[in-house]
UniProtKB/TrEMBL annotation:
Keywords in alphabetical order: Membrane, Transmembrane, Transmembrane helix
UniProt name for this protein: O-antigen ligase like membrane protein
Highest taxon of source: Bacteria
Chain segments annotated as transmembrane: 12-30, 36-55, 67-84, 90-110, 117-138, 182-202, 214-234, 246-265, 327-346, 353-370, 376-393
Organism: Chitinophaga eiseniae
Keyword Cell division in record: no
Phosphoprotein is among the record's keywords: no
Length: 412
Protein backbone atom coordinates (compact mmCIF):
# COMPACT_ATOMS: atom_id res chain seq x y z
CA UNK A 1 0.00 0.00 0.00
CA UNK A 2 1.28 3.48 -0.84
CA UNK A 3 0.34 6.71 0.85
CA UNK A 4 -0.12 9.38 -1.82
CA UNK A 5 -0.86 13.05 -1.27
CA UNK A 6 -3.65 13.93 -3.70
CA UNK A 7 -3.62 17.73 -3.18
CA UNK A 8 -0.60 18.66 -5.24
CA UNK A 9 -1.39 21.91 -7.03
CA UNK A 10 0.69 21.05 -10.07
CA UNK A 11 -1.58 18.10 -10.77
CA UNK A 12 -4.92 19.87 -10.40
CA UNK A 13 -5.30 21.30 -13.94
CA UNK A 14 -4.83 17.99 -15.76
CA UNK A 15 -6.84 16.09 -13.12
CA UNK A 16 -9.78 18.50 -13.40
CA UNK A 17 -9.66 18.47 -17.19
CA UNK A 18 -9.65 14.64 -17.16
CA UNK A 19 -12.63 14.63 -14.78
CA UNK A 20 -14.55 16.92 -17.14
CA UNK A 21 -13.69 14.72 -20.13
CA UNK A 22 -14.91 11.69 -18.17
CA UNK A 23 -18.19 13.51 -17.52
CA UNK A 24 -18.63 14.41 -21.20
CA UNK A 25 -17.95 10.79 -22.13
CA UNK A 26 -20.97 9.83 -20.00
CA UNK A 27 -23.19 11.50 -22.64
CA UNK A 28 -25.13 14.12 -20.65
CA UNK A 29 -28.34 15.19 -22.36
CA UNK A 30 -26.85 18.49 -23.58
CA UNK A 31 -24.12 16.61 -25.47
CA UNK A 32 -26.55 14.64 -27.62
CA UNK A 33 -27.13 15.46 -31.27
CA UNK A 34 -25.22 18.26 -32.98
CA UNK A 35 -23.49 19.45 -29.79
CA UNK A 36 -21.62 16.19 -29.27
CA UNK A 37 -18.67 16.80 -31.58
CA UNK A 38 -18.03 20.31 -30.25
CA UNK A 39 -18.13 19.23 -26.59
CA UNK A 40 -15.98 16.15 -27.18
CA UNK A 41 -13.33 17.91 -29.26
CA UNK A 42 -13.35 21.03 -27.08
CA UNK A 43 -12.98 19.23 -23.75
CA UNK A 44 -10.41 16.74 -25.03
CA UNK A 45 -8.45 19.53 -26.71
CA UNK A 46 -8.06 21.31 -23.36
CA UNK A 47 -7.12 18.03 -21.70
CA UNK A 48 -4.45 17.29 -24.31
CA UNK A 49 -2.86 20.71 -23.63
CA UNK A 50 -2.54 19.91 -19.93
CA UNK A 51 -1.33 16.40 -20.76
CA UNK A 52 1.44 17.87 -22.90
CA UNK A 53 2.52 19.88 -19.86
CA UNK A 54 2.57 16.65 -17.85
CA UNK A 55 4.84 15.08 -20.44
CA UNK A 56 7.21 18.01 -20.14
CA UNK A 57 7.24 17.65 -16.33
CA UNK A 58 7.66 13.85 -16.57
CA UNK A 59 4.36 13.38 -14.73
CA UNK A 60 3.32 11.17 -17.64
CA UNK A 61 5.45 8.76 -19.63
CA UNK A 62 5.64 5.29 -21.09
CA UNK A 63 7.43 2.80 -18.89
CA UNK A 64 8.01 -0.92 -19.01
CA UNK A 65 5.04 -1.30 -16.67
CA UNK A 66 2.44 0.55 -18.72
CA UNK A 67 3.74 -0.16 -22.22
CA UNK A 68 1.60 -3.30 -22.45
CA UNK A 69 -1.48 -1.28 -21.51
CA UNK A 70 -0.68 1.23 -24.23
CA UNK A 71 -0.10 -1.39 -26.93
CA UNK A 72 -3.24 -3.46 -26.31
CA UNK A 73 -5.36 -0.29 -26.12
CA UNK A 74 -3.85 0.95 -29.38
CA UNK A 75 -4.69 -2.39 -31.06
CA UNK A 76 -8.24 -2.09 -29.72
CA UNK A 77 -8.47 1.45 -31.10
CA UNK A 78 -7.42 0.29 -34.57
CA UNK A 79 -9.84 -2.63 -34.60
CA UNK A 80 -12.87 -0.65 -33.38
CA UNK A 81 -12.44 2.58 -35.29
CA UNK A 82 -10.29 1.97 -38.37
CA UNK A 83 -12.65 1.55 -41.38
CA UNK A 84 -12.04 -2.09 -42.35
CA UNK A 85 -15.63 -3.40 -42.43
CA UNK A 86 -18.48 -2.68 -44.81
CA UNK A 87 -20.38 -0.32 -42.52
CA UNK A 88 -17.40 1.27 -40.77
CA UNK A 89 -16.78 4.99 -40.83
CA UNK A 90 -14.60 7.37 -38.87
CA UNK A 91 -16.46 8.82 -35.88
CA UNK A 92 -15.66 11.42 -33.25
CA UNK A 93 -16.05 8.77 -30.52
CA UNK A 94 -12.63 7.41 -31.53
CA UNK A 95 -11.15 10.23 -29.47
CA UNK A 96 -12.14 8.37 -26.28
CA UNK A 97 -9.59 5.65 -26.93
CA UNK A 98 -7.02 8.27 -27.92
CA UNK A 99 -7.54 9.92 -24.54
CA UNK A 100 -7.29 6.55 -22.82
CA UNK A 101 -3.89 5.98 -24.43
CA UNK A 102 -2.71 9.04 -22.50
CA UNK A 103 -4.48 7.99 -19.28
CA UNK A 104 -2.33 4.85 -18.94
CA UNK A 105 0.73 7.12 -19.08
CA UNK A 106 -0.37 9.42 -16.25
CA UNK A 107 1.06 9.45 -12.75
CA UNK A 108 -1.24 7.49 -10.43
CA UNK A 109 -1.67 10.55 -8.20
CA UNK A 110 -3.36 12.32 -11.14
CA UNK A 111 -5.69 9.38 -11.66
CA UNK A 112 -6.68 9.47 -7.98
CA UNK A 113 -7.36 13.20 -8.12
CA UNK A 114 -9.39 12.90 -11.33
CA UNK A 115 -11.42 10.04 -9.85
CA UNK A 116 -12.20 12.06 -6.73
CA UNK A 117 -13.20 15.14 -8.76
CA UNK A 118 -15.43 13.03 -11.00
CA UNK A 119 -17.01 11.28 -8.01
CA UNK A 120 -17.76 14.65 -6.40
CA UNK A 121 -19.43 15.85 -9.60
CA UNK A 122 -21.65 12.74 -9.61
CA UNK A 123 -22.45 13.42 -5.94
CA UNK A 124 -23.63 16.94 -6.74
CA UNK A 125 -25.73 15.65 -9.65
CA UNK A 126 -27.29 12.98 -7.41
CA UNK A 127 -27.97 15.44 -4.58
CA UNK A 128 -29.72 17.96 -6.84
CA UNK A 129 -31.84 15.19 -8.40
CA UNK A 130 -32.84 13.94 -4.93
CA UNK A 131 -33.83 17.45 -3.85
CA UNK A 132 -36.13 17.82 -6.86
CA UNK A 133 -37.51 14.33 -6.21
CA UNK A 134 -38.18 15.20 -2.56
CA UNK A 135 -39.97 18.44 -3.47
CA UNK A 136 -42.22 16.61 -5.91
CA UNK A 137 -42.77 13.86 -3.32
CA UNK A 138 -44.39 16.37 -0.94
CA UNK A 139 -46.66 17.50 -3.75
CA UNK A 140 -44.99 20.76 -4.85
CA UNK A 141 -44.92 21.39 -8.60
CA UNK A 142 -41.70 22.86 -9.92
CA UNK A 143 -41.25 24.90 -13.10
CA UNK A 144 -39.48 23.13 -15.96
CA UNK A 145 -38.15 23.88 -19.40
CA UNK A 146 -38.74 21.43 -22.29
CA UNK A 147 -35.53 20.64 -24.17
CA UNK A 148 -35.53 18.56 -27.33
CA UNK A 149 -32.40 16.94 -28.63
CA UNK A 150 -31.63 14.57 -31.46
CA UNK A 151 -29.21 11.67 -31.73
CA UNK A 152 -28.65 9.49 -34.79
CA UNK A 153 -31.91 10.61 -36.33
CA UNK A 154 -34.07 10.17 -33.24
CA UNK A 155 -35.52 12.83 -30.99
CA UNK A 156 -35.61 12.90 -27.20
CA UNK A 157 -37.54 15.36 -25.04
CA UNK A 158 -36.21 16.30 -21.61
CA UNK A 159 -37.92 18.33 -18.91
CA UNK A 160 -35.27 20.52 -17.30
CA UNK A 161 -36.03 21.22 -13.64
CA UNK A 162 -33.89 23.41 -11.35
CA UNK A 163 -31.05 20.98 -10.73
CA UNK A 164 -31.94 17.92 -12.81
CA UNK A 165 -33.39 16.65 -16.09
CA UNK A 166 -36.16 14.11 -16.67
CA UNK A 167 -36.54 12.14 -19.88
CA UNK A 168 -40.06 12.15 -21.28
CA UNK A 169 -41.83 8.87 -20.55
CA UNK A 170 -39.94 8.23 -17.29
CA UNK A 171 -42.58 9.82 -15.05
CA UNK A 172 -44.89 7.76 -12.88
CA UNK A 173 -47.57 8.28 -10.24
CA UNK A 174 -47.46 6.64 -6.80
CA UNK A 175 -50.03 7.32 -4.07
CA UNK A 176 -51.22 10.43 -5.84
CA UNK A 177 -47.76 11.91 -6.30
CA UNK A 178 -46.21 12.57 -9.71
CA UNK A 179 -42.59 11.32 -9.53
CA UNK A 180 -39.87 10.33 -11.98
CA UNK A 181 -37.02 7.89 -12.48
CA UNK A 182 -33.88 9.80 -11.53
CA UNK A 183 -31.43 10.28 -14.39
CA UNK A 184 -29.50 13.37 -13.23
CA UNK A 185 -28.19 15.20 -16.29
CA UNK A 186 -27.76 12.03 -18.32
CA UNK A 187 -29.63 10.62 -21.27
CA UNK A 188 -31.71 8.07 -19.35
CA UNK A 189 -32.12 6.60 -15.84
CA UNK A 190 -30.30 3.36 -16.66
CA UNK A 191 -27.34 5.40 -17.86
CA UNK A 192 -27.14 7.29 -14.56
CA UNK A 193 -27.36 3.94 -12.77
CA UNK A 194 -24.32 2.60 -14.63
CA UNK A 195 -22.30 5.78 -13.91
CA UNK A 196 -23.25 5.70 -10.23
CA UNK A 197 -22.14 2.07 -10.06
CA UNK A 198 -18.72 3.08 -11.42
CA UNK A 199 -18.25 5.54 -8.54
CA UNK A 200 -19.44 3.00 -5.96
CA UNK A 201 -17.16 0.27 -7.35
CA UNK A 202 -14.08 2.42 -6.70
CA UNK A 203 -12.18 2.27 -3.43
CA UNK A 204 -14.54 3.68 -0.74
CA UNK A 205 -11.74 6.06 0.32
CA UNK A 206 -12.26 8.01 -2.92
CA UNK A 207 -15.43 9.55 -1.49
CA UNK A 208 -16.88 10.04 1.98
CA UNK A 209 -19.52 7.65 3.32
CA UNK A 210 -22.20 10.37 3.28
CA UNK A 211 -21.59 11.19 -0.36
CA UNK A 212 -21.61 7.52 -1.35
CA UNK A 213 -24.91 7.12 0.50
CA UNK A 214 -26.46 10.00 -1.45
CA UNK A 215 -25.27 8.51 -4.76
CA UNK A 216 -26.60 5.08 -3.75
CA UNK A 217 -30.06 6.41 -2.88
CA UNK A 218 -30.27 8.35 -6.14
CA UNK A 219 -29.13 5.32 -8.13
CA UNK A 220 -31.71 3.09 -6.44
CA UNK A 221 -34.40 5.55 -7.54
CA UNK A 222 -33.36 5.13 -11.18
CA UNK A 223 -35.28 1.81 -11.05
CA UNK A 224 -32.51 0.42 -13.24
CA UNK A 225 -32.23 -3.38 -13.18
CA UNK A 226 -28.63 -3.11 -14.36
CA UNK A 227 -27.70 -0.99 -11.35
CA UNK A 228 -29.52 -3.34 -8.99
CA UNK A 229 -27.50 -6.29 -10.29
CA UNK A 230 -24.21 -4.38 -10.00
CA UNK A 231 -25.07 -3.06 -6.54
CA UNK A 232 -26.03 -6.54 -5.28
CA UNK A 233 -22.72 -7.93 -6.53
CA UNK A 234 -20.80 -5.06 -4.92
CA UNK A 235 -22.51 -5.67 -1.55
CA UNK A 236 -21.68 -9.37 -1.68
CA UNK A 237 -18.04 -8.53 -2.44
CA UNK A 238 -17.52 -5.75 0.07
CA UNK A 239 -19.40 -6.75 3.19
CA UNK A 240 -18.60 -9.57 5.56
CA UNK A 241 -21.76 -9.70 7.62
CA UNK A 242 -21.89 -10.33 11.36
CA UNK A 243 -24.85 -12.05 12.99
CA UNK A 244 -26.41 -8.70 13.94
CA UNK A 245 -26.00 -7.40 10.41
CA UNK A 246 -27.68 -10.51 9.00
CA UNK A 247 -30.66 -9.94 11.31
CA UNK A 248 -30.77 -6.28 10.29
CA UNK A 249 -30.70 -7.17 6.62
CA UNK A 250 -33.50 -9.69 7.13
CA UNK A 251 -35.63 -7.02 8.84
CA UNK A 252 -34.95 -4.57 6.02
CA UNK A 253 -35.84 -7.24 3.46
CA UNK A 254 -39.20 -7.83 5.18
CA UNK A 255 -39.91 -4.09 5.31
CA UNK A 256 -38.89 -3.79 1.67
CA UNK A 257 -41.23 -6.60 0.71
CA UNK A 258 -44.11 -4.92 2.56
CA UNK A 259 -43.38 -1.60 0.82
CA UNK A 260 -43.07 -3.38 -2.52
CA UNK A 261 -46.43 -5.09 -1.98
CA UNK A 262 -48.07 -1.74 -1.20
CA UNK A 263 -47.03 -0.22 -4.52
CA UNK A 264 -49.71 0.24 -7.20
CA UNK A 265 -49.99 -2.69 -9.62
CA UNK A 266 -49.41 -0.58 -12.73
CA UNK A 267 -46.16 0.81 -11.25
CA UNK A 268 -44.84 -2.67 -10.45
CA UNK A 269 -45.84 -4.02 -13.85
CA UNK A 270 -44.25 -1.14 -15.74
CA UNK A 271 -40.86 -1.01 -14.03
CA UNK A 272 -40.28 -4.48 -12.57
CA UNK A 273 -42.58 -7.36 -13.44
CA UNK A 274 -42.43 -6.91 -17.20
CA UNK A 275 -38.63 -7.13 -16.98
CA UNK A 276 -38.58 -10.51 -15.29
CA UNK A 277 -41.71 -12.09 -16.77
CA UNK A 278 -41.15 -15.51 -18.31
CA UNK A 279 -43.40 -14.45 -21.18
CA UNK A 280 -41.07 -11.67 -22.32
CA UNK A 281 -37.46 -11.73 -23.36
CA UNK A 282 -35.62 -9.13 -21.27
CA UNK A 283 -33.15 -8.41 -24.04
CA UNK A 284 -35.86 -8.02 -26.66
CA UNK A 285 -37.57 -5.50 -24.41
CA UNK A 286 -34.55 -3.24 -24.91
CA UNK A 287 -34.50 -3.40 -28.70
CA UNK A 288 -36.41 -1.97 -31.61
CA UNK A 289 -39.16 -4.11 -33.05
CA UNK A 290 -37.07 -5.26 -36.04
CA UNK A 291 -33.76 -5.85 -34.30
CA UNK A 292 -34.25 -9.51 -33.32
CA UNK A 293 -35.25 -10.49 -36.85
CA UNK A 294 -32.35 -8.54 -38.32
CA UNK A 295 -29.91 -10.11 -35.85
CA UNK A 296 -31.14 -13.63 -36.61
CA UNK A 297 -30.89 -13.01 -40.35
CA UNK A 298 -27.39 -11.52 -40.11
CA UNK A 299 -25.98 -14.33 -37.95
CA UNK A 300 -27.88 -17.32 -39.35
CA UNK A 301 -25.70 -18.35 -42.29
CA UNK A 302 -22.18 -17.12 -41.51
CA UNK A 303 -19.91 -17.14 -38.48
CA UNK A 304 -19.81 -13.49 -37.53
CA UNK A 305 -16.06 -13.14 -37.04
CA UNK A 306 -15.43 -9.45 -37.73
CA UNK A 307 -18.91 -7.92 -37.65
CA UNK A 308 -20.53 -5.59 -40.12
CA UNK A 309 -19.09 -2.28 -38.90
CA UNK A 310 -19.78 0.43 -36.37
CA UNK A 311 -22.78 1.95 -38.18
CA UNK A 312 -24.55 -1.26 -39.26
CA UNK A 313 -27.44 -0.80 -36.81
CA UNK A 314 -27.88 2.85 -37.82
CA UNK A 315 -27.76 1.94 -41.51
CA UNK A 316 -30.60 -0.58 -41.12
CA UNK A 317 -32.45 1.55 -38.51
CA UNK A 318 -32.45 -1.07 -35.76
CA UNK A 319 -31.37 -0.49 -32.18
CA UNK A 320 -30.28 -2.58 -29.23
CA UNK A 321 -28.35 -1.83 -26.06
CA UNK A 322 -27.13 -5.34 -25.22
CA UNK A 323 -24.19 -7.48 -26.32
CA UNK A 324 -25.89 -8.45 -29.60
CA UNK A 325 -25.40 -4.93 -30.90
CA UNK A 326 -21.66 -5.17 -30.22
CA UNK A 327 -21.54 -8.60 -31.88
CA UNK A 328 -23.21 -7.22 -34.99
CA UNK A 329 -20.73 -4.36 -35.19
CA UNK A 330 -17.44 -6.04 -34.28
CA UNK A 331 -18.03 -9.80 -34.33
CA UNK A 332 -16.49 -12.53 -32.20
CA UNK A 333 -13.00 -11.15 -32.84
CA UNK A 334 -14.10 -7.91 -31.20
CA UNK A 335 -15.40 -9.72 -28.11
CA UNK A 336 -12.21 -11.79 -27.89
CA UNK A 337 -10.05 -8.70 -28.23
CA UNK A 338 -11.97 -6.95 -25.45
CA UNK A 339 -11.46 -9.95 -23.15
CA UNK A 340 -7.73 -9.92 -23.92
CA UNK A 341 -7.68 -6.17 -23.25
CA UNK A 342 -9.37 -6.68 -19.88
CA UNK A 343 -6.93 -9.35 -18.71
CA UNK A 344 -3.91 -7.34 -19.85
CA UNK A 345 -5.20 -4.25 -18.00
CA UNK A 346 -5.74 -6.21 -14.78
CA UNK A 347 -2.74 -8.56 -14.96
CA UNK A 348 -0.83 -8.71 -11.70
CA UNK A 349 -3.60 -7.14 -9.60
CA UNK A 350 -5.15 -8.81 -6.58
CA UNK A 351 -7.44 -11.65 -7.63
CA UNK A 352 -10.39 -10.48 -5.51
CA UNK A 353 -10.30 -7.03 -7.06
CA UNK A 354 -9.91 -8.46 -10.57
CA UNK A 355 -13.05 -10.54 -9.96
CA UNK A 356 -14.91 -7.39 -8.89
CA UNK A 357 -13.72 -5.53 -11.99
CA UNK A 358 -14.65 -8.48 -14.23
CA UNK A 359 -18.14 -8.61 -12.72
CA UNK A 360 -18.57 -4.94 -13.60
CA UNK A 361 -17.07 -5.50 -17.07
CA UNK A 362 -19.36 -8.48 -17.81
CA UNK A 363 -22.61 -6.86 -16.62
CA UNK A 364 -22.01 -3.68 -18.62
CA UNK A 365 -20.93 -5.66 -21.69
CA UNK A 366 -24.06 -7.83 -21.64
CA UNK A 367 -26.49 -5.12 -20.55
CA UNK A 368 -25.16 -1.85 -22.05
CA UNK A 369 -22.66 -2.81 -24.73
CA UNK A 370 -22.72 0.63 -26.37
CA UNK A 371 -20.87 1.95 -23.30
CA UNK A 372 -17.80 -0.25 -23.66
CA UNK A 373 -15.86 2.01 -26.02
CA UNK A 374 -16.60 5.16 -24.02
CA UNK A 375 -13.79 6.70 -21.96
CA UNK A 376 -15.70 6.35 -18.67
CA UNK A 377 -15.92 2.56 -19.08
CA UNK A 378 -12.27 2.17 -20.12
CA UNK A 379 -11.16 4.35 -17.22
CA UNK A 380 -13.33 2.41 -14.74
CA UNK A 381 -11.98 -1.02 -15.74
CA UNK A 382 -8.42 0.29 -15.53
CA UNK A 383 -8.76 2.33 -12.33
CA UNK A 384 -11.02 0.18 -10.11
CA UNK A 385 -8.28 -2.44 -9.43
CA UNK A 386 -5.67 0.30 -8.94
CA UNK A 387 -7.84 2.17 -6.43
CA UNK A 388 -8.02 -0.81 -4.08
CA UNK A 389 -4.24 -1.18 -3.98
CA UNK A 390 -3.62 2.34 -2.74
CA UNK A 391 -4.26 4.02 0.56
CA UNK A 392 -5.28 7.62 -0.01
CA UNK A 393 -4.13 10.55 2.07
CA UNK A 394 -6.82 12.82 3.57
CA UNK A 395 -7.87 15.75 1.40
CA UNK A 396 -6.30 18.26 3.84
CA UNK A 397 -2.95 16.56 4.04
CA UNK A 398 -0.11 19.06 4.39
CA UNK A 399 2.58 16.85 2.93
CA UNK A 400 3.70 18.69 -0.25
CA UNK A 401 5.69 15.78 -1.67
CA UNK A 402 6.11 12.07 -0.94
CA UNK A 403 8.86 11.40 1.57
CA UNK A 404 10.04 8.37 -0.37
CA UNK A 405 10.74 8.47 -4.10
CA UNK A 406 9.23 5.01 -4.40
CA UNK A 407 5.83 6.59 -3.66
CA UNK A 408 6.04 8.64 -6.85
CA UNK A 409 5.26 5.68 -9.06
CA UNK A 410 3.45 4.86 -12.25
CA UNK A 411 0.49 2.51 -12.73
CA UNK A 412 1.25 -1.07 -13.49
Amino acid sequence: MNWLDIDRKTYKPVAWSLAVVLLISCSPFFSMGGNAAYLILGSTGIYFLFFANCLARRQARLTNRNLNYFLISFILLLYLFFPIRQYDRLVVAAVWLLVFLTVVMLDTVILLMAARYFANIIFVIALLALLVFAVKLIGVDLPFYPYETGATGSKSLFFIYPGTAVLQGQEYAVFGRSLFRISGIFSEPGHFGMISAIVLFMNPEILSKRKRTVITIAALLTLSMGFYVLFAGLCMYRFRFSQKQVVGIAVLAVLGFIAFSAMPADFLDRFFLNKVSSNQDVLDARTSAEFSRFYDHFTRYDINLFGGGRTITENFEVTSSDYRSFLLKYGWVGITLYLVWFFVMTYGRKKQVVLLAFFFFAVVFVHRSWLVDYLIFLFAVYFIPISYELAIMPKRSKLPEPQDKRLHWYPG
